[in-house]
Design a protein that fits this description.
alpha+beta, 8 helices, SCP2 domain-containing protein
Amino acid sequence: MVDLLRERQQQLKEWLEELVFIVRTQGGSTWDGFVLAVSGKSAVIELDGIPLQLKAHGGEQLQVEIEPLFDVSTVDFCTDAETLRAIIQGRLSLDAAVVIGKIYVQGTLPNLTAIYGIVMNFLADSAIRPELQDLWNKFDQTWLPTSVFPIPATIEQQHPIYSYLIDNIPEDVLRVDLE
């Protein structure tokens, strides 16, 4: 079991390093935003129960260190492969995944909004960058699903819940006349 954990940590580490390399070589606003958002920061991420420690430093010459973890006390980002697949395939929005608890993320509001911007740039770039598409295909074909939960509905099938707040106001409060 420990060998499987180490193999999966190593594979995930390699893919993350390749992602950083691709974004660095393509440059542009995605790289600039990435450097600005992550330089001088660290995070513990977990995908399908596989934890990694990420540390970034160095400004424009950004270096990202990715190390396996075996004793995890707190996680900054946690999700599963099926959720990532649903987001990449357009069956689930990033926002909806966070709201329904398929993605757990913690941090300060400025850090979270910066990371959100980075992820949206990665998603936009992956539509036009063959290198990112190839990386995603490697992940999709190699990373085995660990769950048998049903796949989330497509975005078209996800209906927003309207009047949630008004429906939860007590009846007697709604009947108060404010004249």
